[in-house]
Design a protein that fits this description.
The protein has a domain of 26 residues. The protein is elongated and about 75 Å long. 80% of the residues lie in helices and 0% in strands. Helix 3 runs antiparallel to helix 4. With 100 residues, it is mainly α. The chain contains 4 helices and no strands. The mean pLDDT is 75.
Length: 100
């Protein structure tokens, strides 16, 4: 009885490991993990650069969402899309200045 139970648990564990091994990992995550484990002196700077790029990308996406929301609820939406791009450039510029 105990042997059958152990065999079943072992088989379930093996199946779980196989599922985990077939799961695709984010390439950026894999690269960051390799850099974390690296003994190279410039791995810190590469990791920092990856981090800064990710933060900048998130800020830009958030700025675009805010401007889009503003554009959809503003009176200039009826005029033309030109207002949208002017507002977007202004907001991104302001966000960059805040980040400094």
């Amino acid at each position: 009885m105990a042997v059958k139970r152990l065999c079943r648990i072992y088989n379930e564990t093996v199946l779980q490991i196989e599922r985990m091994m077939t799961t695709e990992l984010d390439p950026v995550f894999v690269k960051a993990l390799k850099l974390l484990q690296s003994r190279s002196k410039d791995s810190y700077f590469q990791l920092r650069q990856m981090y800064d790029e990710a933060v900048a990308q998130r800020r830009a996406e958030a700025a675009i969402k805010r401007v889009t929301r503003h554009f959809l609820h503003s009176p200039c939406a009826a005029q033309s899309a030109c207002c949208f791009f002017i507002d977007l450039k202004l907001l991104v510029t302001l966000e960059e200045k805040k980040g400094i």
